[in-house]
UniProtKB/TrEMBL annotation:
Segments forming domain SHS2: 24-225
Membrane-protein topology: Peripheral membrane protein
GO cellular component: cell division site; cytoplasmic side of plasma membrane
Pfam family membership, one: FtsA
Subunit structure: Self-interacts. Interacts with FtsZ.
Record protein name field: Cell division protein FtsA
InterPro entries referenced in this protein's UniProt entry, alphabetically: ATPase_NBD, Cell_div_FtsA, FtsA/MreB, SHS2_FtsA
Keywords noted in UniProt: Cell cycle, Cell division, Cell membrane, Membrane
The species this protein was found in: Salinihabitans flavidus
GO BP terms, alphabetized: FtsZ-dependent cytokinesis
Its job: Cell division protein that is involved in the assembly of the Z ring. May serve as a membrane anchor for the Z ring.
Length: 444
């Protein structure tokens, strides 16, 4: 844990330094596309307002000055599988965004889907003896949380305090400056497969860039697609990507659960490709133009031409009805939604006061998906688009860019995490000894 704590602290410092210089890039490494946005900050005075425990404080102070996307290569299920191909794709996206912004970027903040996320709810309590709560007390309360045995080969991506309680008063966002006898803290911790994080880190380094932060795309999609009331009252964000479908649950403006299903839009394309015996590129085009999940009486008569180039005239000039296409797509979409339903049930989603579900991501644009999802997942389902941010091109405002826009919000106003606090002496004995030596040298 020590190495991770130190590296995350170093990344936070790098992000602050990049923001003070005025430019940082965000990178969404997905299975179907890699998106890069370059952000410019209006002023550094906003940095002073970010030293609080609690949720992000709005999205002022930056604008998008460069945006680019490229087809993703070497990424499967949201994880890097071919390093050189992914490196080439990231370089292409970053260079195109830099060209549009007319500025060079050294620091990027990246997000990724997949990597088998697991959520843990932790709590810790400390005695205050009646004095005012300080930053050090908050750090002690976070350090008092018992770490679960999350296994070898896992890394912590997020560790956020989601609730504080002073004596009998719960639901406090920031307890500092208040008085009480006992401080209790609830923390949400998200772990992912360490190899996926290390591969991403290594890939960004190979592109001659510095990584100034990482985030789970389930989390950042929720930040951009859920409106303020939904984040406050309780809602689930389902981000249907190409290779994986991310799932996050928010409550009181904090993420309290995240998971991922290793299926997405590319699996629907694969089914069409096999079912109709057409190349993947043709299957993707057919899915985009004619796809759907709800068949009507008209669909038997609407014929789709499969324009092939195999050289076999009969094979290349086939037609299929739209009803047949829907018959291929619907079972896979239902399977993805059933998997999501199982994850929501495991998280206890039905016990939340509000059970709003928001679908976003590129795969959410299939016509009729909201109706099918409301039957499988529950009544309150809506399609979500990412929040509008300054300077974002019209082409990047669709549901497929929910993660990229969420990364902008995460980069500028990150919620406090465990590594933003100086954890106390007993948690990190090596550093504390060094501090004690320095104290003796300065005071004697």
């Amino acid at each position: 844990m020590n190495g991770l704590y130190d590296s995350q602290r170093a990344m936070r410092n790098m992000r602050k330094a990049a923001m003070q210089r005025g430019v940082v890039a965000v990178l969404d490494v997905g299975s179907s596309k890699i998106a890069c946005l370059v952000l410019r900050f209006d002023g550094t005075d906003k940095l002073a307002a970010m030293d609080g425990v609690g949720p992000m404080a709005g999205q002022t102070g930056f604008r998008v000055i460069g945006a680019a996307t490229t087809r993703s290569r070497g990424v499967r299920f949201g994880e890097i599988s071919a390093m050189q191909e992914t490196e080439r794709a990231i370089r292409t996206a970053v260079q195109a965004a830099q060209k549009m912004a007319q500025i060079r970027v050294d620091h990027v903040i990246a997000c990724f889907s997949g990597a088998e996320p697991r959520s843990y709810g932790l709590d810790g309590a400390i005695d205050l003896e009646g004095h005012v709560v300080t930053e050090q007390d908050v750090a002690r309360a976070l350090a008092a949380c018992d770490l679960p045995d999350y296994g070898e080969g896992r890394e912590v991506v997020h560790a956020q305090p989601v609730n504080f309680a002073l004596d009998h008063r719960s639901g406090l966002g920031d307890p500092r400056g208040q008085m009480g006898q006992q401080l209790t803290c609830d923390m949400h911790m998200l772990t992912v497969d360490a190899a996926a994080v290390e591969n991403l880190l290594h890939c960004v380094k190979r592109c001659d860039l510095e990584l100034a932060g990482i985030a789970s795309s389930s989390y950042v999609s929720g930040l951009s697609a859920l409106v303020e009331d939904e984040q406050e009252l309780g809602a689930a964000c389902i981000d249907m990507g190409g290779g994986a479908t991310g799932l996050s649950i928010f409550m009181k403006k904090h993420m309290i659960y995240a998971d991922a299903v290793r299926m997405g839009g590319e699996h629907v394309t694969g089914d069409i490709s096999m079912g109709l015996q057409v190349p993947t590129a043709t299957a993707e085009r057919i899915k985009t133009f004619y796809g759907g999940v709800v068949a009507t009486g008209m669909d038997d008569r609407e014929m789709i031409e499969l324009e092939g180039d195999t050289g076999d005239w009969e094979h290349d000039r086939r037609t299929v009805s739209r009803a047949e296409l829907i018959g291929i797509m619907r079972p896979r979409v239902e399977e993805i939604l059933e998997e999501v339903r199982a994850r929501l049930d495991a998280a206890g989603f039905e016990y939340l006061p509000s059970q709003q579900i928001v679908l976003t991501g590129g795969g959410s644009q299939i016509p009729g998906l909201d109706g099918l999802a409301s039957r499988i997942l529950g009544q309150q389902v809506r399609l979500g688009r990412p929040m509008r941010v300054h300077g974002l091109p019209q082409a990047a405002t669709g549901p497929g860019f929910a993660s990229a826009v969420g990364m902008c919000l995460f980069a500028t106003h990150p919620q406090d995490e465990w590594w933003d606090f100086d954890l106390p002496v007993e948690r990190y004995p090596v550093r504390s000894l060094r501090r004690a030596v320095r104290w003796f040298r300065d005071n004697w």
